[in-house]
Write a structure and sequence with these properties.
Length: 359
C-alpha cells in the first residue's frame, strides 16, 4: 500500500455492472495490476486446462450459495437491505430480479439473475430464467442462488459455438490486491487504530459504484452475522465487506477459524431463496422452511451442522503421517482417521452431505 513501492491497483474500467465479474473471467491476467499471483492455463497442454466455464454456465457442479451469504450485500444506497421482508412479498425469480436492481452491483455478478446472458449446451446462448432447482446431477442447484462469478458465456477457449463441454483457459486468481486492502482495514480496526478507508475499502466500493464505507446497524444482523460474541459495529461492517468482496473465492472457512465463528453455522441449516411453486412443474418437490425459503437439508441434517469447538478448529493429522513420524501426536478429539476420511470430513463440515454450499 506504500505509494510507489509496488505497481498495484484495482481493476476498473468504469463499468460497475461488469468490472467485478470481468476480473475473474479473463484468460490472461499478467497485465492486471490487482492480481498479484495467478495460475495460467493452456489447452495445448492436456493437463493444464479446466472446465470452470462449464460449471458456471450450463451446469453447477452442485455448487449453491446460501441466503446467509446473500444477506451480507447492502442496498445500493449503502444501507442494510430488508431481504426477509422482500422475500415474503416477492418470492421466486422476481426476488432475484429485485435484489439485482436494489443491491450492491457485485451481488448480480456473483449469482445468476433473470435476463443475464448465459450458455446452455441444449440451446446455445440463452437468457437465464430461473435456477436449476428442477435439474439433477452436476447441473442441479440446491438453494436458488446459482453461482455466476467468473462466467463468460462467449469465452472462445471454452468451446464457443461447440458448447461448454470442452476444457477452457480462464485464469485463476490466487492473490489480489483487494485482499491486502481488506486485511489492512481489519487489522487496523482490531488494533483500535483509525482505519484509512479512502485507501482501502472505498477503493473496492468505487469499482462497484457503491457509497463509501460507513458504520451501520442492521436489525437483521443476528440472523446471518451473529459471531457468538460482541464486536463493534465498525468491525462487523469490515467483516461484511470481506464476505462480499471475497465471495466464493475460498477464504470463508479460514475466516471462520480465525474469528472463532462457529456460531454462524452450528445447529443451523443452510437456507435458500423464497420458493414460488408455480414457476416449476407441479410434481417437483423442493423442501422449504416455515418462511417458504428453500431448505435443501431439511430432512438430512435436521439439527443443522454439528461442530465440536474443542476438536473441529484443528485438522486431523492423518494416521499415515503419525506412522511415519512417531513424535507426532494426534490433535484433541481426533482418532484413527485416514487421509481419505480426513478429506471427506473437510468437505462435509461434520455431517453435511457432499454438496458445496457457500455460506
Amino acid at each position: 500500500m506504500t505509494n510507489g513501492k509496488y505497481k498495484v491497483g484495482i481493476y476498473i474500467t468504469g463499468n460497475p455492472a461488469n468490472d467485478y465479474n470481468a476480473l475473474f473471467s479473463q484468460t490472461k491476467l499478467a497485465s492486471v495490476t490487482e492480481v498479484v499471483l495467478w495460475a495460467k492455463f493452456d489447452k495445448t497442454q492436456t493437463t493444464y486446462s479446466h472446465n470452470f466455464q462449464q460449471y458456471v454456465t450450463s451446469a453447477t457442479s452442485q455448487i449453491s450459495i446460501t441466503l446467509e451469504m446473500i444477506k451480507n450485500y447492502l442496498g445500493k444506497d449503502g444501507n442494510p437491505y430488508d431481504y426477509s421482508g422482500v422475500a415474503k412479498l416477492t418470492p421466486g425469480t422476481p426476488f432475484l430480479s429485485k435484489i439485482a436492481v436494489d443491491c450492491d452491483p457485485r451481488l448480480a455478478q456473483v449469482i445468476w439473475t433473470p435476463g443475464q446472458v448465459m450458455w446452455d449446451n441444449a440451446g446455445g446462448w440463452v437468457l437465464f430464467t430461473k435456477p436449476y432447482l428442477d435439474k439433477s446431477g452436476e447441473v442441479k442447484n440446491h438453494t436458488g442462488f446459482q453461482l455466476r462469478k467468473g462466467a463468460d458465456p462467449t469465452d472462445p477457449t471454452a468451446g464457443g459455438a461447440q458448447g461448454f463441454s470442452t476444457a477452457c483457459e480462464t485464469g485463476s486468481v490466487i492473490f489480489r490486491y483487494a485482499e491486502a486492502l481488506l486485511n489492512y482495514a481489519e487489522a487496523q480496526a482490531e488494533l483500535g487504530q483509525p482505519v484509512d478507508y479512502a485507501s482501502s475499502i472505498n477503493l473496492l466500493r468505487k469499482r462497484a459504484d457503491m457509497p463509501d464505507f460507513k458504520v451501520v446497524t442492521d436489525p437483521d444482523r443476528s440472523n446471518y452475522a451473529d459471531f457468538g460474541y460482541p464486536i463493534s459495529d465498525e468491525l462487523q461492517e469490515i467483516r461484511r465487506e470481506r464476505a462480499v468482496e471475497l465471495a466464493c473465492e475460498g477464504y470463508r472457512f479460514d475466516d471462520w477459524r480465525r474469528w472463532r465463528a462457529h456460531n454462524l453455522f452450528k445447529a443451523k441449516r443452510p437456507i435458500g431463496f423464497p420458493f414460488l411453486k408455480s414457476e416449476f412443474a407441479a410434481n417437483l418437490v423442493v423442501p422449504i422452511d416455515v418462511n417458504n425459503l428453500v431448505d435443501p437439508f431439511k430432512t438430512i441434517i435436521v439439527n443443522g451442522y454439528q461442530f465440536l469447538e474443542g476438536r473441529d478448529y484443528l485438522d486431523c493429522i492423518p494416521t499415515n503421517e503419525i506412522t511415519l513420524n512417531p513424535k507426532l501426536t494426534q490433535n484433541p478429539g481426533w482418532q484413527y482417521f485416514s487421509n481419505l476420511t480426513h478429506k471427506v470430513y473437510k468437505g462435509c463440515l461434520s455431517g453435511c452431505p457432499l454438496v458445496l454450499l457457500l455460506l
